[in-house]
């Protein structure tokens, strides 16, 4: 590893895992989850990434905001290939730590913009940086909401993985007008249900028509878990990002029964746990 420059202190920044789409909010709604990725960055005499970076995306992120070489090391609690925004968390944590290590402001809007340039969609990037529930416009404006405290979130993590680029290949180029119209309605019920804690609103979200059916055909376990969660009383159950992870939204009364049903649907090939919403970007000391 290259030597740090004299006086160059290590800076640590963490960002959250995230669930993109949440069913109807394809590419424009994200939810931060309480799993973290941490980037440790210090000034260096040469660019160096000590963590696996086969696509070079971490180095690209660092060089997007600095001409000064740095040394980068990442640690993460976020499983890869599960639809939990692992790449967005790595990118945004790196961007934040590099900005601070090179004596630049921790500009959240800049981090989201640079992250979008590398990720090509806002939902996971914005959720990782701002935390909570985010809704993004096509132009990149981000509106943040808190998820109501009565909402409980269960996550099913199948042993299988589904790379995002492969999952995108399964999607059609066009969708029927009726499906698009119904999706707009479902999106409003999703946001308001999570924001207000009104389960009746969440029940109107129903089954996504834009992307989930195509991805479920690639990983049938996703459909089995979603069906099991809804049958056990979940107000809504959706794929997390490109999958195969699944989120179920409920209240405390039904949490145990829904979790048991989701676990049974996994048939011994995965786990179910309760998860909290995640906070935004943090500098660690």
Secondary structure elements and pairings:
Elements (H helix, E strand, L loop, with lengths): L10 E11 L3 E19 L4 E2 L7 H9 L4 E7 L9 H16 L6 H12 L2 H9 L2 E4 L5 E4 L6 E7 L5 H6 L7 H20 L2 H5 L8 H7 L1 H12 L4 E4 L6 E5 L4 H12 L3 E6 L6 E3 L1
Parallel strand pairs: 3-4
Antiparallel strand pairs: 1-2, 1-11, 2-4, 2-5, 5-6, 7-9, 7-10, 8-9
Explain what you see.
By secondary structure, the protein is an alpha+beta fold. The chain has helices at residues 57-65, 86-101, 108-119, 122-130, 164-169, 177-196, 199-203, 212-218, 220-231, 255-266; strands at residues 11-21, 25-43, 48-49, 70-76, 133-136, 142-145, 152-158, 236-239, 246-250, 270-275, 282-284. It has two domains: 11-145, Ribosomal Protein S5, domain 2 (2-Layer Sandwich); 152-275, GHMP kinase, C-terminal domain (Alpha-Beta Plaits, 2-Layer Sandwich), CATH 3.30.70.890. β8 (236-239) and β9 form a beta hairpin. It starts with 10 loop residues before the first strand and ends with a strand. Residues 1-7 have low confidence and may be disordered.
Fraction of residues in H or I helices? 25-40%
For this structure, the CATH topology of the largest domain is Ribosomal Protein S5, domain 2
- Outline the biggest β-sheet: 7 strands, mixed
Q: How does the overall form come out from the CA principal axes?
A: globular
Structural class: alpha+beta
Oligomer: single chain
Question: What would you report as the Rg, rounded to the nearest angstrom?
Answer: 19 Å
Indicate the proportion of strand residues.
25-35%
Average pLDDT works out at 93
CATH architecture of the largest domain: 2-Layer Sandwich
Low-confidence stretches: 1-7
The CATH top-level class label of the largest domain: Alpha Beta
What is the total domain count? 2
- Provide the succession of SSEs: EEEHEHHHEEEHHHHHEEHEE
The beta-strand count equals 11
